[in-house]
Amino acid sequence: MNRMSRSTLVFLIGAVLVFGVTQALFSLEILTSFWSTIIRTGAVMAIVSIGLNLIYGFNGQFSLGQWGFYAIGAYTAADITWRWANNKSADGLVVMLLVTGLSGTAIMFLRAKLARIRGLDALSAFTLYLTAMILLAVLSVFLGGFITPAVSGLLQALPTALSMQIVFFLAVLIAGLIAAEISFIFGLPVLTLGSDYFGIATLGFSIIVKVLLDNSDTMFGFVEMKGARGMVGIPRLTSWFWVFLFLFVVVVVTRNLLRSSYGRAIISIREDEIAAKAMGIDVAHYKNLTFVIGSLFAGLAGALYAHINGFLSPNTFNFIRSFDPMIIIVFGGLGSITGTLAASFTWALVLEGFLRLWLPEGFETWRYVVYPILLLLLMLLKPKGLFGDYEIPFLRDQLPPLEPIAPERIEEGIPPAAIQASATTMPVKPSDNPTSQEASE
């Protein structure tokens, strides 16, 4: 416990120092706005990559759909803040709050009821959940018309800057929740597939999301998104404080999850799914849980990204870019949160920062050639990634403390390791072992 307390204290002090020093460099303009954007983008990529590492690195599910949930989070939050910033209307905020709240309640209710039905296949459950979500979305739009005026008036009574920050914070949370709920429904039939087929299915999901965003203005009536032309006028609200806060929370939540009994079940599925099922672990439940949490992180990251540059284009979420989080977690080390953090900021600083500035004018696109070469060299020289399975002490999964050993047993000359091993072994009664019973007789 003392070791854990020290590691936690060191982690907290280190986090405060990183935030304070970086903020001071921004405030004193030692780091320009260009580098500020790069660093904030690196933090956003760290959030979405930690979610993918949880799905692939810790649970063993090869997913390429993280970018689709990233796009869903980005456009959801951007539409909410755009409506408030440009129309002073909280209709987007109210409707999406109702959608996430009602849908989340319906998912928990249906899950409890459907669990009692034996033999219910995944596609039937998927149909029921999807139908309920669509009906509740229509109901939310209807109810939102009555609630919006009161909420808009309440927010307008607050100072402009404060109301904008409240709307932004709620928009980020809603974006994460809507991505998580969609991933839960999508994961019901898809998670029954094998790892490779699951990867192809999730890649198809990302492509579908991108196509829908290309036609969001004509197909769904979101004129402000402007379809393939790109959404403009998004308020730039993602400060270093916000992105660091969400990154800190994501790291701590992931660490605590992996150290819990849920985390041990998640990792056991990666190690041997058949053995985990034989030990009574509900494999389907933990796969879906991991997929939902990873998608939640992707939605949060997308919402933060949308408010960095104030512009969103569907081309940012094409299937080629969907490989970025996968490259980052492989580069940093599968199953390593520390490696993911380091690789995310390295990805942003090298690809979007140093290579863009160092390459001769007109050769900026060659960074997409130099960067893969660096990755190829790393994979040849260090196949396990930059950090392998290394974790800083706060994130490292430590064994429980050893039980105290009686002094009289040490005096008998028995090695402490042997005593501890025997203490953790279940004793066998002579009556249960005929051979040992006969030997004793």
Q: Please, could you describe this protein's structure?
A:
The chain has 441 residues and is mainly alpha-helical. The chain has one domain (32-381). Helix 2 (33-58) packs parallel to helix 9, helix 2 (33-58) crosses helix 13 (324-332) and helix 4 runs parallel beside helix 6 (160-190). It contains 18 helices and two strands. Strands 1-2 form a two-stranded antiparallel sheet. The chain has helices at residues 2-27, 33-58, 66-87, 91-114, 122-156, 160-190, 195-214, 216-219, 240-259, 261-271, 273-278, 283-309, 324-332, 337-358, 367-381, 407-411, 416-423, 434-440; strands at residues 231-232, 311-312.
Q: Which regions are unreliable across 5 or more consecutive residues at pLDDT < 50?
A: 399-406, 409-441
Strand content: under 5%
Oligomeric assembly:
single chain
Span of the ends, CA to CA: 47 Å
Query: What structural class is derived from the secondary structure elements?
Result: mainly alpha
Sheet having the most strands: 2 strands, antiparallel
Name the average pLDDT. Answer: 85
Shape: globular
What is the number of helices? 18
Q: Please state the CA-atom Rg, rounded to the nearest Å.
A: 25 Å
Strand order of the largest sheet: 1-2
Total discrete domains: 1
Tally of DSSP β-strands? 2
Question: What is the percent of helical residues?
Answer: over 70%
Provide the succession of SSEs: HHHHHHHHEHHHHEHHHHHH
